[in-house]
Amino acid sequence: MKFKNNFEKIYENIVAPPPLFIYTTLIIITIAYFSPYLDVRNYFIGDDFVWLYQAKFGRFVPTLGADDYSYQNKYGSLAFIYQLIPVSIYNDRPGGLLFIKIIHEIFGLSSATPYYVAILILHIINVALFYKYARIFLSVWPSWIAAALSATWFYAIDAATRVNAIFDVLAFTASIASILIFRESVEKNSKIKYIIGLLLFVFAIRTKEYAIGILPILFLQESIFFNGKIKESLKRISGYIFVFLLIFTRYLSLYFDQSTERLISKTSDYHFSYSLQGTLENFYWYWSEVFYKPFVSPIFLGLIFLIFIAIFITGDGKLKRIYLFSICAFTLILGPVLLFTGQRSALYLYAPHFFVALLLAATLEGKALNKILGILLISFVSIIPFSSNWKHDSTNWMLDRRNEVRLQLESGTPIISEKLTTNKGDLTVFIGGVKPYINAYVNSWATMIDLGRPVKNLLAEHMIYVLGQHSTEKMDDFIKQYCNQPGGKLFLEYDGNVAHDRTVEFEKNCQ
Fold first, then answer.
1. pLDDT surpasses 90 at 176
2. Where are the beta strands (DSSP E) in 292-388?
3. Phi, psi of 495 (to 5 degrees)
4. HSE (CB half, 13 Å, CA atoms) of 269?
5. DSSP characters for 405-437?
6. Residue 255, pLDDT score
């Protein structure tokens, strides 16, 4: 009898393991997957410096929006962090910037590791919250698989490896928490939790714009899974509707404001196109990217498409509901980026991919054929990046590039700093010998941060001119720019990642 009781207890723990086991294993899997990104080579790169500059100096860096940056004048300091209502149609994300600023205030910029650890912690929280969310629809083990899959879905979680994409990660934290708390508020009729959910909804939107899609997701969730008639569902989410209308109206006013003409012009990558064909093409691009389009043959993608059709046709009622809900949620979270004509990025897949993981895990509760097809897809997503060394090679390539940026700054900054002192801030820097795009001078924010002060003259447009390694055909223009530039000048030439002051030698080209 005792043996039988012990066996039953073991069986129960296997079928329904305790929460401690669930969350511990998810944490271990996530940390193991992300451990390479804690390498000392990992550093800041590209747009990371734009946000770090804002966090360090407390000044808003205009990127997209009003030509005269009237909102910068009005919110010249980071006072705009405390604005609940958007002041710019794009890149106005005080929630994420506040998070970066907190990390900066604690750890500074001596190392990038604290920033990547913070993003990893956020991702772990998202995975744990998503497991809890999946439990609304699925049993324990399929929910665990959904969470584990979302934790390690290579390429789709690229945002969790970049400082400048912390907005995508943090916004999902607030979004999924808002959804969970909303559900609890409905079940327990708690007004306090409902208000907390609303506040998280606002914070999510002010962290990344895609969170505005949470409203229709809540409506679909209530209508499809909780026997909510349309009128009843709308009543439940009425507070969210109010917040949505308030912020969406503000976005519309900014969109049609003449001051944002540069952003919405047809020449901008962020121009909205309302073409059905363009929207469908963008949807296909993002859906196929989730399944590794750049790295697998079209035959594989076609086979995956057929598998999804088969899953829907053969699935039972519950699987069909989860299927349709997941596809809709994937689309709604992508939201405005489906309308961009010239801007596509795998970074935008971070939040949507969770719902694809939910769909794949749901197949494990379907019929035998659904289980087989689901296991095939889950295996494909999990194994391909590792079996081909794709993840290893691409991760190390990026770590090496980021390390190059660090080495370039460590070598070049002392020279620039000395010249700034000599020229009393009147200095234009010309850079030669660096790799195109992936270098410390792709924009001037990196240099200004590393110099430890916001030098006014360095804010001027074209402060830094860069001649890449493979741009010798542009040498004549480069020399002409150098010779015609008034004031103090510095020509910094790189041999690998080591900087040399070649100003004296380069001046001979102007004689």
1. yes
2. none
3. -110, 100
4. 7
5. HHHHHHHHHHHHHHHHHHHTT-EEEEEEEEPSS
6. 78
What pLDDT does 63 receive? 46
Token couple for 490: 């510095």
Q: Write out pLDDT tens, residues 19-51.
A: 899 999 999 999 999 999 988 899 988 888 888
Q: How far apart are CA 39 and CA 34, in angstroms?
A: 10
- Do residues 74 and 87 lie in contact, with contact meaning Cβ atoms separated by under 8 Å? yes
Higher pLDDT, 74 or 467: 467
3-state secondary structure of 340: strand
What pLDDT digit, counting tens, does each position of 378-417 carry?
A: 999 998 888 778 888 889 999 998 999 889 888 888 888 8
* pLDDT of 67 above 50: no
For 206, which DSSP code? T
Q: Which amino acid is at 331?
A: T
On whether the CB atoms of residues 123 and 169 are closer than 8 A, the answer is yes
Q: Burial of 144 by CB count in 10 Å (0-12 exposed, 13-18 middle, 19+ buried)? A: buried
Widest distance between CA atoms in the chain: 100
**Phi/psi at 428 (nearest 5 deg)?**
-115, 130
What residues contact residue 238 under an 8 Å CB cut-off, 6+ apart? Answer: none
Mean pLDDT of 212-221: 95
Please count the CA atoms within 13 angstroms of the CA of 131 that sit on its side-chain side.
22
Report which residue type is found at 126. N
Residue 445 has pLDDT above 80, yes or no: no
The enclosing H or E element of 279 equals helix 276-290
Distance CA(51)–CA(163), nearest Å, equals 9
Both tokens of 241, joined, read: 């509707």
Rounded Cα gap, residues 426 and 250, in angstroms:
41
CA-to-CA distance for 390 and 394, rounded, in angstroms?
6
In terms of DSSP bridges, do strands 464-468 and 427-434 run parallel, antiparallel, or are they unpaired?
Answer: parallel
Look at residue 451 in the predicted model and tell me its pLDDT.
Answer: 59
Hey, how many other C-beta atoms are within 10 angstroms of the C-beta on 225?
15
Q: What is the DSSP letter of 59?
A: B
HEC string of 65-127 equals CCCCCHHHHHCCEHHHHHCCCCCCCCCCCHHHHHHHHHHHHHHCCCCCHHHHHHHHHHHHHHH
Q: Is 422 exposed, middle or buried (0-12, 13-18, 19+ CB in 10 A)?
A: exposed
Q: Are 293 and 155 in contact (CB under 8 A)?
A: no
